[in-house]
């Protein structure tokens, strides 16, 4: 390897990245990382003002960025997100499925409405967004899909079964997509974060947060920025021989 090849490993220049749930928390941190690595970034979330605020922030970092209001549970919105991305930037190279719904209900008291809402955002949305983006990913020379799952897919906790099952389903879809798309040159991987200091985490009771922190070796919450390195590895040429895998970023808490 020479200096030029080395410098290109994590370089995302001239690549277009879509990040769902990209206006706060892990999604915004990933969007910042992609912009700083040279990518054009499209952030998507439900609120139009949040989308524009995040996009303006990314542009202030020196990147090209737009925000597209999108409900991850709406298949029509997902198609519009892909269309707007391609109209604005001419293609789509990397898709990050980060939007999530953390609905929690105990088994025995689950409602069909909650089940549908959880599944639509956590499973159906990511899968159909990949389908919508597939023709454009096939045209890219650096195509990658990153599915943000969770250590909840490996562990178990009361009331969290819908969320955990959805994330486990996305791990299965990650592997299936990797196998199905390999002939098209599209790599598909996942990251399973442990407890991260985000709004979603802070919505939990402090006792639950303390329990999750206590289950890690490092005994603290991660910052959202600590997900960026793994994401850049999986979405850049640095991860060119990685597909169908899940990187666990959890402070050492998940049994292997």
Automatic annotation (TrEMBL):
Q: Which InterPro entries match?
A: KR_dom, NAD(P)-bd_dom_sf, Sc_DH/Rdtase_CS, SDR_fam
Q: Which residues form the Ketoreductase domain?
A: 15-194
SUPFAM superfamilies named among the record's database cross-references: NAD(P)-binding Rossmann-fold domains (SSF51735)
Please give the family membership noted in the entry: Belongs to the short-chain dehydrogenases/reductases (SDR) family.
| Pfam families linked | adh_short_C2
Q: Keywords on this record?
A: Oxidoreductase
Please identify the protein, giving its name as recorded. Oxidoreductase
| Presence of keyword RNA-binding | no
State one molecular function term (GO).
oxidoreductase activity
This protein's source sits in the domain of life called Bacteria
Keyword Oxidoreductase applies:
yes
């Amino acid at each position: 390897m020479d200096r030029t090849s080395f410098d290109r490993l994590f370089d995302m220049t001239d690549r277009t990245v879509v990040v769902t749930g990209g206006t706060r928390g892990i999604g915004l941190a990933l969007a910042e990382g992609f912009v700083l690595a040279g990518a054009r970034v499209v952030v998507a979330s439900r609120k139009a003002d949040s989308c524009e605020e995040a996009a303006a922030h990314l542009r202030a970092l020196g990147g090209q960025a737009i925000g597209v209001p999108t409900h991850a549970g709406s298949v029509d919105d997902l198609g519009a997100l892909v269309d707007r991305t391609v109209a604005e930037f001419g293609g789509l190279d990397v898709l990050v499925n980060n939007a999530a719904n953390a609905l929690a209900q105990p088994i025995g008291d689950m409602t069909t409405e909650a089940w549908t809402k959880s599944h639509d955002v956590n499973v159906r949305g990511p899968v159909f967004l990949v389908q919508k983006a597939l023709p454009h990913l096939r045209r890219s020379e650096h195509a990658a899909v990153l599915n943000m799952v969770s250590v909840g897919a490996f562990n178990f906790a009361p009331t969290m079964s819908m969320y955990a099952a959805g994330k486990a389903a996305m791990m299965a879809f990650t592997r299936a997509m990797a196998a199905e798309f390999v002939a098209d040159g599209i790599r598909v991987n996942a990251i399973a974060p442990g407890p991260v200091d985000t709004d979603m985490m802070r919505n939990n009771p402090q006792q639950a947060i303390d329990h999750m922190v206590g289950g890690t070796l490092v005994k603290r919450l991660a910052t959202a920025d600590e997900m960026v390195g793994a994401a850049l590895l999986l979405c850049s040429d640095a991860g060119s021989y990685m597909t169908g895998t899940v990187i666990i970023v959890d402070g050492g808490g998940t049994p292997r």
